[in-house]
Amino acid sequence: GPVVAPRPGARVLDACCAPGGKTAHLLELFDVDLHAIDSDAARLARVEDTLTRLGLSATLAQGDATERDWWDGTPFDAILLDAPCSGSGVIRRHPDIKRLRRPSDIAQLALLQRALLDNLWPLLKPGGTLLYATCSVLPEENRDQIRDFLARTPDASEQMPDGIAWGQVSGAGRQLLPKVDSHDGFFYARLVKAGR
Ligand SMILES: C[S@@+](CC[C@H](N)C(=O)[O-])C[C@H]1O[C@@H](n2cnc3c(N)ncnc32)[C@H](O)[C@@H]1O
User: Fold this and answer.
1) pLDDT tens digits, the chain, 196 residues: what are they?
2) How far apart are the first and last CA of the chain?
3) CA of residue 113 relative to chain centroid, distance
4) How far apart (Å, rounded) are the C-alpha atoms in residues 124 and 121?
5) Residue in 149, 70, 87 with CA at minimum distance from that of residue 115
6) Which residues pair with 169 in a beta bridge?
7) What is the DSSP letter of 5?
8) Is there a catalytic annotation at residue 17?
9) How far is ligand 1, taken at its centre, from the CA of residue 44, in Å?
């Protein structure tokens, strides 16, 4: 919440929203016009259930965030990209990840994350904020992904508000490693678009 911190009424996109934990959290923290998409219809139905149960509302749509056919053409003040990833930061809660993932998955996931970043960035207003996040501890999905994005995107820069202290600096983002009796592995980078 404090890392995105959208102003009241802001038009916000939650680009990979299901099952909706962060969608609900954003709506509980901020009075925003939230648009939430996910490519998986069954998982999106869980977002709808969660919002209904909590008495919250957002505009939900099934959509592929590497495409734009779901977009109405109006740019966003803020985008949350909680990207599909290896889940390497949450293995203790989902030990099957260790058995199911193949080394080749990481390069494929990195390509998908790259496509998501490149497709969503133009949908952001000048001065807008994109928060990239994964529950991974692998540099290919995190530090290196954001380093490469910044290198090919001249109007993007990393900007973290003062007082945000979670995780250790990892390139242009922050990496949290799993801790006993505490949080999972997680990465986030706050990217701001030039030109306002
Ligand atoms: C890490 S999960 C999101 C978790 C969610 N933000 C939350 O806090 O509950 C990643 C999501 O991305 C979705 N996804 C994968 N590829 C996608 C794509 N191309 N476009 C949109 N959503 C996608 C998956 O279906 C999955 O629900």
Assistant:
1) 889 889 999 999 999 999 999 999 999 999 999 999 999 999 999 999 999 999 999 999 999 999 999 999 999 999 999 999 999 999 999 999 999 999 999 999 999 999 999 999 999 999 999 999 999 999 999 999 999 999 999 999 999 998 988 999 999 999 999 999 899 999 999 999 998 7
2) 22
3) 10
4) 6
5) 149
6) 174
7) -
8) no
9) 9
Spell out the domains of the chain, with CATH numbers in brackets: 11-193 (3.40.50.150)
* Structure-token pair, residue 125: 């207003």
Choose, from 16, 17, 85, 135, the residue flagged as catalytic: 135
Residue whose pair of structure tokens reads 């250790």 in the numeric block: 168
In this structure, the residue with its CA closest to atom 15 of ligand 1 is 84
Which pair of structure tokens corresponds to residue 190? 């706050």
How many angstroms is it from 172 CA to the middle of ligand 1?
22
Residues touching ligand 1 (Cβ under 6 Å) are 16-22, 37-40, 43, 64-66, 82, 84
